[in-house]
Structures are given as C-alpha cells and as structure tokens.
Write a sequence for this structure.
C-alpha cells in the first residue's frame, strides 16, 4: 500500500490554508465595505433630512428668532447647527454652515438688486461624519467616514 | 484487496479546492467593491437632486428680482470658494464647490439655439451651450399661454417642427433644471464650467412650474406716473371729457401726482359723468380744473399698479419672419417716388440743403431694393396721396449709419408753427436732451433755462462735439426747425430743388392680411411725418416715437395680450400741424398709447387753428421701465395734452391682457421629474 508523501501533504495543506486565509481576509474587507457602503448611504440620506429640517425650521421661524438668526448672520466659521444623530448602533455627527451669496454684477446680495426684500440666497453645506471624533480624521483601514451635501436656498417672503 | 491511489492526487485536489476558494474570495471582494460603487452612485444621485433644487432656488431668486429674467445677465454672477454661477444668452451654469472641488453642477437653458433674431430673441451662447433638449420658458409676465417645446433638432435647437410638449400658462414659468454630480465633473472649473464630463456622472432633470402672484389693475382712460397737464384753447366746448365704454368701470384718470388744467370752456373744462380722479392729493383738485358736474377724488398710492407692458412683452414684429427694412430716412416726393437715405433725419436735413444727397430710388413697389424678405409692405400712389401700406409685420434693422426710422415728405413735416418761444413740451424735451448731452461730455449747447429754437439749433454747430450733439438732439431737431421759422418755416431746405408734398399728402396705412400688422424699430427712434391710418396696426419703437405733421386715424387690434397702437420706450409725441392750411388736424385713435417716458399730444400752438383728439382705449405714461415700479425714472411719465378738445374714452377691449399684473410672489410649484 502506497501512502501520501509528507511533502505532498504539506504542500496541499499550505495551499488550502493560504486559500482559506485569503477568503477570510477578503470576506472581512468585503463585509467592512458593505458596512461602509450602508453607512455612507445612510449618512447621505441623513444629510438631506437634516438640511431640510434645519432650513425648514429656520424659515418657519421655529423656535422664534431662528429665521433672523439664519438669514441675517453668516455661518461660515461657526456652524449654524451642530449635533449627533444615533441610527442603529452608529452615531453620526453633523455640522451645517450657511453663507449669503453676493451678486458680482451689482455688489449686493444676490436676489436684491431691484430692491426686492426677503429674496436673498444662501449656500448651505452640511457635513456628516461617523466613527471618528473629527470630520477631518481618518480611521486606519477605512476610507473617509464622512460625506457632505450642498444646496442653495432662496429666502421665503416674510409671512 | 489492494487499493490504488496515484501519486499527487491529493495535491491536485487541493489545487482545485484552492482555486475554488480563491474564486469565491474574489467574488466576495468584487461584491464589496460593487457595493461601494453603488453607494457612491447613491450619494451622487442625492447630490444631483440637490443640484436640481439649487438651480431652482437660484432661478426663483432671479425671477423674484425680475419677472422677465431668462438667464441673460451675460456675466459671472457668483464666484466664490463655494459657488460659481455664470449666465450667457439664456443659459445658466452653476458649480457647487466643496473644499475647492466641484461636487455638483446645475444647468438651466432658455436659449432655443435659433440664432440671433430667432424666436427667443437671444444670441446663441458660445461658452455655455448645453447639449440637452430641456428648454425652460418664462411666461410670468404673459397674460396668454405659450407653448413649451423641447430642443429636439439635430443640434438641440427648437425648430418649426419641434413637438409641443405642453404649455406655460398665463403668468407662469416652466423651469427645467438639470443637476449632475460625480467624479466625472472633476475637470470642471470657473474657466470651463461647461466642459464635457470625464467619468461617471449621475444626472437628474426636473421641471418646475412657478406661478406669479397677481394684482388687479384699476382701469383708467389715463395713467400717468407724473402730472396730467391739459392745456385747452379758450373756446366753447373746449374740454377734457373722460368716459368709459365699460358700464362696470367708472371713467377714471390716474396720476401719481396731480391733474392740472389751463384754459377751456369758461362754463367748465372737465367733464366726466360719474367719474373719478385718482391723484396723490385726494382732498382737492388743482386750481384750473373746473369740472362740469361732480367728480369724485380718490387717493392714488405710489405703489398702485399701472398696466405693465415691458419691452419684452409688447407685441413686436418678429425679425425672423417680418419684412426687414434698413434703418434710415424714407422720403416721398412730388414725383410719386420713394427714396431711401441711409442716414438720420437730422443728417438728411443737413445734406438736403447742400444738394449732396446719395440718391437711392426705390422703384419696386414691394421695396425689394432695400427690403429683406419683402412682401409685407408696399408703396403705391392713390390719386394725389402716396401710400405706404403695411400688410404684415415689418421690422427695422439698424445700419452702420443710423438706427432711426423716418418716413417723411421730401421737405419734411412740421411739428408746430413758427414761434418766438419754445413750446413747453419741446422745452422739456430739450432739457432732457441737454442733460444727456452733458452726461456725454458735450459742452456749448444753449442754456436750457430759457432757450429759443434758433438758439438751440445754432449752438449745435458751436458745441465741442457737433456730431454727438446732433445725434442726441436728433429727435427734436425737425420740431425745432419748425418752431425756429425762416423763409419756409420748419421745412427742410432743399436748396435749388422744391417739393410741395406735405405730410397730409402721404400716408402710412395698416391693412393687415390677418388680424394685425406691426411696424417695429427695435433699436431706435421713429418719426412718421405722415397720416397714420388703418385697422389692426401698431407702431413700436425702442426710443422716441413721433407722429407729426398730420392727423391720424388708427385702430389697434384687440387681442388676448394687448391692444397697443403706439408703444415707445422713450417719449411718444403726436403733433398734427398742417403747415399748408395752418391748422392742427384731428386725431382719432383706438387702442392703447403706451410710453415709458412722456406722452405729448400737441393739437394747438400759437394762432393756428386747434384740433381735437378722440381716443377709445387708454393712455399710459409709465415713467420708467415697466419691469420696475411705476415712475422709477425721475421727471418722466407726464401726459401733456394741448388742444381744443380731448375725448378720452376708456375701452376695456384694448386692455384685456393688461388688467392683471404679475407680482414677484411665486407659487405654487408643480414638479415633474424627467429622469
């Protein structure tokens, strides 16, 4: 009866182990990509939701004073709104910035050249990040755990 | 029993197993990558949709600023570290930036790509030409619906056969915004904001319908941003009579300042049964206004709307389909000929006296020697009257020498008899021209405080820039010459040649083949030294419009948009002095006389026999550009009426499309996503 040679068994074992380890490694990477992907989509939807809520409440002046706060001040250095939202097991951080646009052809606020009031335009930026303490921070082994959204908003007429 | 196992079978099996495991691992890895790519697309889709919303918000702000906005600023409007927006001939591009990189783009297209002079009245863009068919239509100021087409031509242009996909109703706008996001936009920049993307881009297109708010306009026979000044001869029945053909509309005069009158029938110079005068002072009529019977006074607020017809909205001849006549001076002579001179009226008058006139006789009755796309205007002799007959739209095209359109008898048409003093309306016009001349650096013109016509004319040659001075004063030079007098008062000096043809011997006649015909000078002044007659006609000038030297009988067409018979962005002047009979002819008009400046009707001057005016329709002196508030231009918007009798009858049939004005409150929004 002829058995396996030691070399044959060792070689076979090595190959299978390498393959299994590769499988495990890639599975881990893939699962992380899945998670990242889910987190990014969630964060993107969260951008839309938070932007809509924040601008909506400002334009409805809820709480009172928020409308003037939003439209009369510049929010380019200090965020207009900041906070955390917990979705599932993950906590998302966000900051909303807003700046009034200037019409280069007149040097006045965009939308006001003919003396129209309550017609300014702001560019609003929202930044959302997760699993890191600062939105500029990178986490080892992950891509950028952040996203952003930008939108223009036209000032509604005063009720 | 002996079993047989060939050498290496385990190794072979392990190879196969390893291969299968690695394939499985690869598949799992690829799934993860695809998932990430998919999430990237989802994020870009969100950003593209946000870009669509941004484009809408931008357009909405611009439209609330100017209801006629169509992306035509032709400038970079916003350029900072977070946003770049540029407009060129109806197309708008916006780049939303994050950390200095383009994260999304919006594009709005109003241009039809039908070339200059096309239906959109926009030159084609060169830098911001979008290769998509989604064209926006702004009809926020329009009282009638307009069709919506896609740019489905071979180069995305709207053609005559482009399918109609809907319509923008009255006082609405259909704004189509395209939003794009993705790595493919990374090569865009402020220098090339419309470059073709390289790589993946997610695109969203949405259509929004915006509706303007509306205010009803208080109808009136006269609306004046400035004074209404009526100067009547002292004769029996010499009156201003204001009526209304609409039983539900009271006879009304509206002025942001006041109605003032001078002269007239001693038993009363103002007659308006059940009428109302709306002026800034609602306590008392000005001294000089002597009503026959009671007249109510109401307060006219500065913010109350007038009929609003902007240059963009007024019914004009479409240069792409109209007969095009070159700008210049068209002269009719005793011999029954029409001669065309490529020059202003002032230049013609100057050269006529020297006899050095470049002669261009028009022999063809359809004027094909000078006309492009002839067929809408003819000249013919009918007995002793030479007629220029307008059967369909005619548009004037500026030449390198002039932007004016003048139609006169060879020796000119007088505006007023010779007089030692300057008539008030001419004095006022000279004052405005003097200020304009000073603004342009002209010095040496006659002092506007107390000038004489002869003094003004003499000072043109003595100014530091006679050519510019003459150009600025050009609209009133014929009138000044008339007033200045001479051997042949007011006539153009023809040197050794003579010509007896008078303004009343020639006529501009509107005889539309369809319901209406329009004569438009889209770039300059118009002087008609002829009788203006017909039905369904209108004359439109982007400048001063003067109908001088004879009486007129013209009825505008009534249509859903407007029934304007005369429209000018400058002053609108009628003077019907007939020099041969030394009397003023009567004016009988139907339609709306609309001016962004003043409206002057001169039917009496000096000892000449005065005339009367009868109008069915309305008179509007807006006092500025109607895209802005009433009376935005200082010292403009007066209505000056001078004559024996004025019968002004408000007729709502001619203002059907003007009774409502749109406001900047845009709502509601109907949204349709296209892809």
């Amino acid at each position: 009866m002829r058995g396996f040679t030691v070399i044959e068994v060792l070689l076979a074992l090595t190959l299978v182990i390498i393959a299994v380890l590769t499988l495990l490694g890639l599975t881990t990477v893939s699962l992380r990509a899945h998670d990242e992907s889910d987190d990014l989509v969630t964060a993107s939807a969260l951008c839309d939701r938070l932007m809509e809520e924040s601008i909506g409440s400002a334009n409805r002046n809820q709480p009172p004073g928020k409308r003037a706060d939003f439209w009369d001040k510049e929010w380019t250095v200090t965020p207009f709104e900041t906070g955390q939202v917990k979705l599932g097991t993950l906590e998302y951080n966000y900051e909303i910035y807003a700046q009034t646009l200037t019409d280069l052809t007149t040097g006045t606020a965009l939308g006001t050249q003919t003396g129209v009031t309550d017609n300014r335009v702001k560019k609003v930026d929202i930044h959302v990040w997760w699993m890191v303490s600062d939105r500029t921070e990178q986490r080892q082994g992950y891509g950028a755990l952040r996203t952003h959204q930008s939108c223009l908003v036209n000032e509604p007429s005063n009720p | 029993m002996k079993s047989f196992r060939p050498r290496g079978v385990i190794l072979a099996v392990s190879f196969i197993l390893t291969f299968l495991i690695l394939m499985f691992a690869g598949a799992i890895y690829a799934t993860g990558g695809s998932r990430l790519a998919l999430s990237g697309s989802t994020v870009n889709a969100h950003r593209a949709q946000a870009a669509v919303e941004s484009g809408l918000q931008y357009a909405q702000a611009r439209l609330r600023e100017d209801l006629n906005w169509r992306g035509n600023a032709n400038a970079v409007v916003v350029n900072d570290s977070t946003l770049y927006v540029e407009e060129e001939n109806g197309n708008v591009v916006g780049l939303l930036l994050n950390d200095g990189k383009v994260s999304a783009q919006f594009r709005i297209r109003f241009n039809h790509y039908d070339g200059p002079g096309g239906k959109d009245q926009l030159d084609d863009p060169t830098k911001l030409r979008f290769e998509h068919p989604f064209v926006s239509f702004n009809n926020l100021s329009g009282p009638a619906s307009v069709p919506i087409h896609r740019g489905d031509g071979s180069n995305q242009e709207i053609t005559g056969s482009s399918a109609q996909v809907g319509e923008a109703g009255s006082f609405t706008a259909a704004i189509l915004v395209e939003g794009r996001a993705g790595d493919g936009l990374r090569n865009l920049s402020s220098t090339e904001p419309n470059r073709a993307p390289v790589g993946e881009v997610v695109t969203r297109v949405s259509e929004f319908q915006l509706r303007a708010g509306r205010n009803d306009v208080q109808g009136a026979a006269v609306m004046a941003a400035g004074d209404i000044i009526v100067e009547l001869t002292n004769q029996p029945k010499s009156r201003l009579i204001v009526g209304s053909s609409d039983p539900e509309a009271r006879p009304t005069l509206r002025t942001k300042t006041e109605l003032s009158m001078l002269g007239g029938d001693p038993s009363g110079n103002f007659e308006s049964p059940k009428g109302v005068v709306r002026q800034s002072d609602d306590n008392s009529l000005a001294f000089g206004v002597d009503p026959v019977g009671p007249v109510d006074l109401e307060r006219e607020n500065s913010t109350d709307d007038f009929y609003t017809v902007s240059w963009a909205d007024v019914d004009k001849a479409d240069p792409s389909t109209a007969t095009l006549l070159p700008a210049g001076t068209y002269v009719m002579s005793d011999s029954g000929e029409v001669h065309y001179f490529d020059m202003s009226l002032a230049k013609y008058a100057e050269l006529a006296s020297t006899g050095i006139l470049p002669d261009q006789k028009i022999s063809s009755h359809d004027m094909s020697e000078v006309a492009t796309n002839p067929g809408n205007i003819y000249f013919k002799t009918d007995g002793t009257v030479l007629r220029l007959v307008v059967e369909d739209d005619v548009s004037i095209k500026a030449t390198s020498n002039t932007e004016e359109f003048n139609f006169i008898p060879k020796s000119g048409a007088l505006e007023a008899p010779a007089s030692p003093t300057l008539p008030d309306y001419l004095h006022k016009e000279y004052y405005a021209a003097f200020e304009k001349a000073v603004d342009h650096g002209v010095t040496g013109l006659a002092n506007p405080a107390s000038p004489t016509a002869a003094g003004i004319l003499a000072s043109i040659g003595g100014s530091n820039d006679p050519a510019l001075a003459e150009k600025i004063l050009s609209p009133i030079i014929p009138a000044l010459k008339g007033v200045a007098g001479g051997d042949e008062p007011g006539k153009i000096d023809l040197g050794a040649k003579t010509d007896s043809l008078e303004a009343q011997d020639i006529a501009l006649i509107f005889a539309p083949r369809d319901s209406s015909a329009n004569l438009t000078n889209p770039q300059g002044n118009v002087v008609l030294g002829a009788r203006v007659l017909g039905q369904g006609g209108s004359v439109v000038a982007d400048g001063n419009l003067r109908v001088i030297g004879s009486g007129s009988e013209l009825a505008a067409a009534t249509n859903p948009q407007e029934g304007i018979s005369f429209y000018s962005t400058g002053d609108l002047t009628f003077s019907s002095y007939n020099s041969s009979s030394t009397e003023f002819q009567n004016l009988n008009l139907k339609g709306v006389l609309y001016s962004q400046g003043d409206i002057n009707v001169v039917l009496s001057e000096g000892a000449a026999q005065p005339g009367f005016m009868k109008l069915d329709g309305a008179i509007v002196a807006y006092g500025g550009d109607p895209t802005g508030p009433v009376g935005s231009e200082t010292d403009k918007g007066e209505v000056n009426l001078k004559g024996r009798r004025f019968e002004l009858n408000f007729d709502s049939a001619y203002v059907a499309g003007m009774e409502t004005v749109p406001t900047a409150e845009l709502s509601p929004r109907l949204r349709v996503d296209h892809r």
User: Anything to note?
Assistant: The mean pLDDT of chain B is 87. The CA atoms of residues 441 and 465 of chain B lie 8 Å apart. Chain B touches chain A through 61 residues (CB under 8 Å). Chain B is about 15% helix and 35% strand.
